[in-house]
Write a structure and sequence with these properties.
With 392 residues, the protein is mostly beta strands. The protein is built from 4 helices and 27 strands. The radius of gyration is 20 Å and the shape is globular. It starts with 24 loop residues before the first strand and ends in an 11-residue tail after the last strand.
Length: 392
């Protein structure tokens, strides 16, 4: 999400100026599946034998990057794939210091024959950790062998805090619509791929892997290799946001539970936003605090916007999300993080939100299907979901 795309990612360091750009994309052929799982009982009509699979790069479970080139001749970047953002931006070679000039790769418009300035057009993006601004242009971008001409991009020139997530260079937004975009509210990457004839349907499928697995994740364009076990219609606010039927937190005894939202709770209307730009689970305090309390956490640190827990506490509970008949259970191994001798719960108070923000810890448990054709987001079991050990 543009407002929080860099949450808890500002501690990433530059890795010695090393260049991380290499070709990691590959084609694949998928055959239609016949089993029926979705709420509408439809077959997997979203499977396209010409779909393109793009491997993602996992930066320590904090963010997921995609190799991309900008300009002619191509200038290489690794951009943070962000389903909660509607903008594409890269750092300028003329970006201010000390922040933007730290980027591993920088864009130089003077070296590109396809650069087209949009006179007078600027952008400003606000993140939890600071702001970014710059100029706007049309450029040719390419990833997975798919070229998009006249893609509107932001060129980052001014930055007021160290919000960059090195070694990734910028962001490639992958939203439901461009409604929240500061650079191009009329289009999306998925729509532009379709417009350029690269995919038959405005559909994508996302799988995030654990840090020790290769590849770090997969983005499938134009189709998927699984059927959704649940579909939800997006709310129309620009994000991949759908209803949740129920959220329950299991106590430290492993049996008692509290209904955090859904029928019978104080918050009957539950919503979930799927956001690869967040390394945490987030939401308003009236949802996050009851979850943390039931799981067994009580100490909230305002400086890091997370709960501090005892790394040796073996009594932390589980969290269960229910979407129709589809359930996702998060255990401590899924949500806990450790930095040195400090363990954090991975739940952030974000009181400017009304929905639960389900970031990477949740998305590693599922396959996310994104269907612009029918304004829906779907969920299926992850084909690599398995018990995750607690951090040690």
């Amino acid at each position: 999400m543009a407002r929080i795309a860099i949450i808890f990612l500002t501690f990433v360091c530059v890795f010695g100026g090393a260049t991380f750009v290499k070709s990691i994309e590959e084609d694949f052929i998928r055959l239609p599946l016949t089993s029926l799982h979705s709420r509408s009982r439809r077959k997997a009509d979203v499977v396209d034998p010409n779909a393109k699979k793009v491997n993602l790069w996992n930066d320590r479970n904090l963010q997921y990057g995609i190799n991309i080139t900008v300009g002619t001749p191509p200038q290489p970047f690794i951009l943070h794939l962000d389903t909660g953002s509607a903008d594409v931006w890269v750092p300028s070679v003329n970006g201010d210091c000390p922040y933007l000039c730290k980027a591993v790769n920088k864009y130089d418009s003077s070296k590109s024959s396809t650069y087209k300035e949009i006179p007078g057009k600027t952008f400003t993006l606000g993140y939890e950790t600071g702001g970014l601004s710059g100029s706007v242009a049309e450029e040719t971008i390419s990833f997975a062998g798919l070229e998009i001409k006249n893609q509107v991009i932001g060129i980052g020139e001014n930055q007021d805090t160290d919000l960059n997530s090195y070694p990734l260079d910028g962001i490639i937004g992958f939203p439901w619509s461009g409604a929240t975009s500061q650079t191009d509210p009329k289009s999306t990457i998925l729509g532009n791929l379709h417009k350029n004839g690269h995919i038959k349907k405005r559909f994508a499928c996302l799988k995030l892997h654990q840090v020790n697995e290769q590849p770090g994740g997969e983005l499938l364009l134009g189709g998927c290799d699984v059927e959704a076990e649940h579909w939800g219609r997006v709310y129309g606010n620009g994000y991949w946001e759908i209803p949740i039927d129920k959220v329950e937190a299991f106590g430290t005894d492993g049996n008692s539970l509290d209904s955090i939202c859904g029928p019978g709770s104080s918050v009957p209307d539950c919503r979930a936003t799927f956001d690869t730009g967040a390394a945490v689970i987030g939401g308003p305090s009236y949802l996050i605090d009851p979850i943390a309390s039931k799981l067994g956490a009580s100490k909230y640190d305002e400086n890091i916007n997370d709960y501090i827990v005892d790394c040796d506490d073996q009594t932390l509970g589980n969290l269960e999300f229910t979407f129709g008949k589809f359930k996702v259970v998060m255990t401590p191994g899924d949500y806990l993080s450790k930095d040195g001798n400090t363990c954090t719960l991975g739940f952030a108070r974000l009181d400017d939100l009304s929905a639960l923000l389900l970031g990477d810890p949740f998305l590693r448990k599922v396959t996310l299907l994104m269907n612009q054709e029918k304004d829906e987001a779907g969920l299926a079991k992850s084909n690599i979901d398995k018990p995750v050990a607690r951090p040690t």
